[in-house]
Here is the input.
Amino acid sequence: MRYIIANWKAQMSFQDIKIWLKNFKKIFNKISCKNLKWSKNLTIVICPPFPYILYVREYLKDFSKIKIGAQDISTFLKGKYTGEVTAHGLQEICDLAIIGHSERRSNCNESDRTISTKISLATKFKINPILCIRTKEDIIDKNVKIIAYEPVGAIGTGKNADASSVVALKNQLKLLKKAIFIYGGSADSTNIQSYLATKQIDGFLVGTASLHPDEFCRMIVKMLEK
Ligand code: PGA
Here is the structure.
């Protein structure tokens, strides 16, 4: 299975999101009508901020290729935890969750232990974790199927990592055969082909480029063409 995952971070207001969805639907409908071979193997994931998850899910419910993800989950199970958003609470509305993003590791001091708790909770509630790693030193839980390699210097900088360095890192990880290995870090429609050409990279975690529905759709088309 291949994945293209939009990580909107905290970049858009509700108004921005409504405009994004309207434009995306228009463009995506056009793509769907085109003579592209819709691969059963491509899943598109949108990860909005928590308050908008249900709205986005409802808006895109007719598109079976599109799944909804959370950008994070709480380390708490459930209960008296004001402000927390738990896997228990998200279980019916999210299919996946990004866990251990480098921005959370650095801005929120998330440790390997925190990340491991989050992975267990996501799995417990049937939310598929997308584990982000920054280097080969970051711990990879054996229960995780989707691993997103995002070198810190490539995130949001426009300086995407070389496809060959991404493959070299992947080979050092000794992943299980069924693991899905995706790349993130300034991925866009002009550079994803170099990763896809290696046949070793199963998709992309996309920040900046996902904020523009036309660009995000160009990336989807590139993945279908490949
Ligand atoms: P970027 O972000 O595409 O803007 O580099 C990727 C990410 O942080 O997941």
User: Anything to note?
Assistant: The pocket of 2-phosphoglycolic acid is lined by residues 7, 150, 155-156, 184-187, 205-209 (CB under 6 Å). The chain has a mean pLDDT of 95. DSSP finds eight helices and eight strands in the chain. The radius of gyration is 17 Å.
